[in-house]
Specification:
The chain is built from two helices and eleven strands.
Length: about 190
């Protein structure tokens, strides 16, 4: 049974590589670019992101601002989902502020037990100050059957959370002295 599962994964991976090669050879023309304006975050919030109906090269920009509530902690995740019909084998993402690259997303390809691919991109938590930001997702949407008009897509979230306050060293020392004093008082009462 394990050999059968490994053969299916190997077959799925081979098919995935063929799709990637076909996309690279068949794609010509300019990438489709879309901009999605998400608005201004003035408190902890979340945004749904994604795009469906993609064919060929694309470049999507999700722009947002962090207002007076900043700084906020940014985190993001997007996935194509597992599919036996289409894929975005090179989906990747980058976070920019005023045209300067801040972060690269961690992109990885996963396979279902049947060997169908899914591409995921994640951003670990990162504190963002007040300002304007652009989250860029790009890649090449491909069909496993280039003769059929099958489209691809991805979906995910952007999460902006309140930054956890980190106590100053003097505060930690005072808390520690308070705990020691409480323990000393308890021992005297015994």
């Amino acid at each position: 049974m394990a050999d059968d599962l490994n053969q299916r994964k190997a077959s799925g991976f081979s098919r995935f590589l063929l799709v990637c090669a076909a996309a690279a050879l068949c794609h010509s023309g300019a990438a489709v670019a879309e901009t999605f304006r998400l608005g201004e975050a003035n408190s902890a919030t979340g945004f749904a992101i994604g795009n469906e109906g993609l064919r060929g090269a694309f470049s999507d920009v999700f722009s947002f601002q962090i207002g007076a509530a900043g700084p906020l902690e940014f985190e993001s995740f997007a996935s194509t989902g597992f599919s036996n019909r289409s894929a975005i084998p090179d989906l990747h993402a980058e976070l920019f502020s005023n045209g300067a690259l801040l972060l690269n997303g961690l992109a990885q390809t996963l396979f279902s037990p049947e060997g169908f691919p899914s591409r995921e991109v994640t951003f670990s938590p990162h504190v963002l100050e007040v300002g304007s930001y652009e989250l860029l997702f790009s890649g090449t949407a491909t069909s496993f059957d280039p003769g059929l008009p099958i489209t691809s897509g991805y979906s995910g979230t952007i999460t902006l959370a309140q930054v956890s306050a980190i106590p100053e060293p003097a505060t930690i020392v005072l808390i520690g002295l308070g705990v020691v004093a409480m323990i000393a008082v308890r021992r005297r009462r015994r």
